[in-house]
Design goal:
Elements lengths: L4 E6 L2 H9 L8 E4 L6 E4 L1 H5 L12 H7 L2 E3 L3 H15 L6 E5 L2 E5 L8 H16 L3 E6 L2 H13 L6 E3 L3 H9 L11 H8 L6 H5 L3 H19 L17 E11 L2 H21 L2 E12 L10 E12 L2 H15 L6 E13 L13 H18 L30 H8 L1
Parallel strand pairs: 2-4, 7-8
Antiparallel strand pairs: 1-6, 1-7, 2-3, 5-6, 9-12, 10-11, 10-12
The structure holds a DNA duplex.
Length: about 425
DNA sequence: TCTGGGGTCCTAGGACCC
DNA sequence: TCTGGGGTCCTAGGACCC
């Protein structure tokens, strides 16, 4: 074996971020809710112990909250994003060969670290992150990413491992796989779990031992890769440079249902501006735009409406002015009076690098002007926040604003919040 | 009353072309 | 008029991730 990966993942990440700045939350059950305070998306260990499941609607746990004095927080992505950056910064001191996999997980390529004491090294990573950022993490080390995920998972459940597990020894790998349900393997979702159960495959160890032909047939080439990774053969490389996104989507449920086109247009315009910012930050232009609008999925069938409109742009662009024009036009064409709308959004596709845009006769004559304006807007928003410059169409009163009843201050990124907290 | 948001990749099938 | 196969491109749908 030559390859070696570590995965470092923040324990109950959002709840832990909140705890770093609010010691009162220590030792208490804490849950963090999704946008609009809809559903539970993060739980402290104490909250998990009370049986609160991932994704349950907030209203379903009201009794539990009262009885156990659970601290319920709205999500604060500005805070979590900044804490995530600090964790990555810390990890990058250990190796530059690092992949930021998600807001709370990074893979490290430990390449030829076979001659160091891996247990001690992994423990040093864990303790350093805790000391420098306040975030508790778990570290799993193994010859493939998929096995590292298995190690990481067990490290959190086993008191003996206490957040650090190295799986390089064949006997240990076998034992770990036998203890891991197939549903908990990275890459095996609910559908495959059911399918595999029909063949009597219920543990990661069973899955490791299927034939290549079986894996290929029932789980496609993706599943075959997973099986090989479970055997210790590394098939999924570290991606140090994040690939440019091929789709960029911004959508939100409204804080309350909306009926008026003007209010919905305000929300969609704001999503469009955000989406265009994301597009420009990866130096791309989009050639296709989709706008969608929908009522609640939980409405009676007669009151359900979903529609979308996809438009091929005359010329790929990242100009908010142009995208706003297309988006509001598309919205107009799918809006129907008489429904109570819950959500709207925009998806940008056919994304190309901004220096490879094919110009043609239909392109806007204002490209240079728009790009200068976008640069100015980007730098203003960078300094003063994304709400500092707005278009008229976004509206002043945000009828659609998120419901956030208990959001914590942005302790690390907003001066006004920091001042407020300290006084 | 209240039920998240943002992504990726693979496959199968049809259209179309030579 | 009939015969055949192979290739590419696109799209929809299905699976997964956090």
């Amino acid at each position: 074996m030559t390859s070696l990966f570590a995965i470092v993942d923040g324990n109950n990440f959002y709840a832990s971020c909140e705890r770093v700045f609010n010691p009162e939350l220590e030792g208490r059950p804490v849950v963090v809710l999704s946008n609009n305070d809809g559903a539970v998306i993060a739980r402290s260990n104490e909250a998990k112990a009370l049986g609160i499941k991932m994704g349950v609607p907030a209203f379903e746990i009201k009794d539990l909250v009262r009885r156990h004095d659970i601290k319920v927080l709205s999500s604060n992505y500005e805070l979590y994003g900044d804490m995530s950056r600090r964790v990555v910064e810390t990890l990058s001191r250990f190796t530059p060969n690092l992949e930021i996999y998600s807001i709370d997980e990074s893979f490290l390529d430990l390449g030829d670290f076979y001659n160091v004491d891996l247990n001690e090294y992994a423990r040093t990573i864990k303790e350093t992150v805790k000391r420098w950022t306040g975030i508790p993490v778990a570290v799993g080390v193994a010859p493939s990413k998929t096995l590292a995920k298995v190690a990481n998972r067990i490290s959190k459940k086993s008191a003996k491992a206490n957040g650090v597990l190295v799986l390089t020894d064949e006997r240990h790998i076998e034992e770990a796989l036998k203890r891991t349900e197939v549903a908990d393997v990275w890459g095996i979702g609910p559908r495959y779990t059911r399918k595999l159960a029909a063949f009597g495959i219920t543990t990661a160890w069973h899955l490791r031992n299927v034939t290549d032909a079986f894996a290929r047939k029932h789980l496609t080439v993706v599943g075959l890769r997973t099986v090989r990774e479970l055997r210790g053969m590394s098939c999924i490389d570290l991606e140090m440079v994040p690939a440019a996104k091929q789709n960029i989507c911004t959508s939100r449920s409204f804080g309350k249902t909306l009926t008026e086109l003007g209010d919905i247009r305000g929300a969609l315009a704001t999503h469009t501006v955000r989406c265009a910012s994301k597009l420009r930050s990866q130096k791309s232009c989009a050639g296709v735009l989709t706008v969608f609008l929908q009522t609640s999925r939980f409405n009676d069938p007669g009151q359900c409406y979903f529609n979308s409109r996809t438009i091929k742009l005359d010329c790929p662009t990242s100009s908010e002015l142009e995208l706003l024009r297309y988006a509001t036009g598309a919205l107009q064409s799918i809006y129907r009076e008489g429904y109570r709308y819950k959500k709207a959004g925009i998806i940008l596709q056919d994304i190309v690098p901004d220096n490879q845009v094919q110009l043609n006769l239909l392109c806007s004559p204002n490209i240079d002007r728009d790009m200068k304006l976008m640069r100015a807007l980007d730098s203003l928003r960078d300094r003063f926040g994304h709400k500092s410059v707005r278009y008229g169409v976004q509206g002043i009163k945000e009828e659609w604003a998120l419901k956030q009843e208990n959001v914590s201050p942005c302790f690390t990124t907003r001066l006004e919040d920091i001042i407020r907290v300290r006084s």
